[in-house]
Amino acid sequence: MRSPNGSDRAVDDLADRFFEGVLERDPISATRLGDVRWNDRLPDLGDSGRAAEASACRDVMSAATAIEAHHLGPEPALTRDMLILLAQNRLEALEQRQYQLAVDHMSGVQNMPMEIAHYHVADTPEQLGALLARFAAYPAAIEQHIATLREGLSDQRTSALDAVRKTVEQIGKVLTMSPSPPVAIARVADEAARDRVRRAVEIHVNPALKALHDFLVHEYRPQARLEPGLHSTPNGEAAYDVAIRAQTTLSATADEIHRFGIEEVQRIESEMDELSGWLGHPDRNALRRSLADDPVNRATSSQQLLDLASDRIRRAEAAARQSFGRVPHAGCVAKPVEAYREQYVTTFYVEPTADGSRPGEVHLNTYELAAMPLHMLASLVFHEATPGHHLQAAIGVELDGLPRLRTHASAIVPQMGGADRRGGPPLMGAGFIEGWGLYAERLADELGLYASQAERQGMLEFQLLRALRLVADSGLHAKGWSRQQTIDFLHERRGGAPRVISESEVDRYTIWPGQALAYKLGQREIERLRREISQKLGGRFDVRTFHDELLALGAIPLSILRRELPARVETAIFSASERRD
């Protein structure tokens, strides 16, 4: 085995310093990871925060480029290339000033107090003081946020009207809820501590939220852009190109993505028609109507939905060894999305802490039970838990011998994974993470996890949705599609699914340009690699080795995955064969 040299150590040290800076600049993500060093701070959402981000990216890109790749071992070489790519993507996003489009009804700054209260364990006097310091700093964060939005007004780069409307509604709901969400959520030792949290929220948090609400209503909303696509913003075409690269970590044009989306939609619809015929229905829409009209296909309570999700999680965990040599130690639990935002967000996953103090969490939206037919629940759970996000992220957290940038970078995103707190792309992009999640939905079928053909239909409906997203996102941001045109497209191709679901989808694409592309493009890369490696190795191919080697890389850009994985899988399989011989 090759011993690390000075250049190898230099890369690892550089990656560690860069990631340390990421955590310091985004202390809420550090808290989510169980790192409490900056628990009394909030991220800098203003000019100085963006300047620090740009400086860090320029420094790491310069330092990484100066290290000659041919002197490096395989892992440091990969880490070096990853540092350069991530820094380039983030600098490009800052240059496009996409941070000005910061009104976000799904993971915006208005949710910060609740996010802090949920993840900040304040059961000691020291940590309670840190939590209260964060709440005291919240008005300054809101002032920075408003200043950024005013900068966007000056540059005529504003968020879309519907995102503003939903954010205003959300803030209004938080301000009228009793008890106040951050007070109810706070993880404190006793009621005396909760009373201190209550006073801090009344003194600092609620007035800041009211200031943001009033600014949005009176100053910002009248100037919010009417067209939701990036094409309607200054330099919008270039901005969307950057968003594609940052979110998918691939080089692809909007036209290429649009064409692939149309082809994939047609392919999946044919697959759905075949299944529908097998079940005795004339076509996919007839099967959809049958499932939609079946009262047994609806949960009667939120708890029933959570119980069913928990059952699917346990079944998947029991079957994982069929396709994985390594499974994570951390468990995963199903929880409901909190009441203050259940109208605005979809189901999402939160990774476990590295110290094991918190398991992985699938936050299931139980607000509108009619919008979650039971035949679709299994695929959703397999995407978010095992074999999807939880298995990938929890294994990443447990990997040894890699810089934390490689093992934890997928966690440095807000709860919903769209943009970072300064309006840029997530640190890692979404291509690997969401591509793996969608690949996992198909893998669950290989593992026999779908309990009925109806659940398989649910899987295909989700596959179709992700293909439709390729067409809709590129149509919205690059081809001038209106909000209504995009909603109509989704509604019609999904066979009459409730229109409100298509509306929510489009409003999500609006605030997170390019994120919706990551699922199908990432899945395509992983499936292509598996197919090509399997064809090359023939009978020697082992799917457990393929998965183990893929996840052992950590969450990495898809362009690097494409380059690195084949040789690693081949080496692992041949090494195992030699040991057996």
What would your notes on this structure say?
The protein is mostly helical. The chain has 2 domains: 6-238, no CATH class; 259-524, no CATH class. Helices cover 63% and strands 3% of the residues. It is built from 23 helices and 5 strands. The strands form 2 sheets. A 3-stranded mixed beta sheet has the order 3-5-4, with helices on one face. It has a two-stranded parallel ribbon with strand order 1-2. The longest helix is centred in the first third of the chain and has 31 residues, at 125-155.
Main beta sheet strand tally, sense and closure: 3 strands, mixed
- For the residues shown, what is the average pLDDT? 93
Rg estimate, integer Å = 23 Å
Q: How many DSSP H or I helices?
A: 23
Low-confidence spans: pLDDT under 50, at least 5 residues?
A: 414-424
Q: Which percent bin holds the helix content?
A: 55-70%
Fraction in beta strands: under 5%
| Overall outline | globular
Strand order of the largest sheet: 3-5-4
Count up the domains. 2
Assembly type: single chain
Q: Kindly name the structural category.
A: mainly alpha
Question: What is the N-to-C succession of helices and strands?
Answer: HHHHHEHHHEHHHHHEEEHHHHHHHHHH
What's the β-strand tally? 5
Intertermini distance: 20 Å
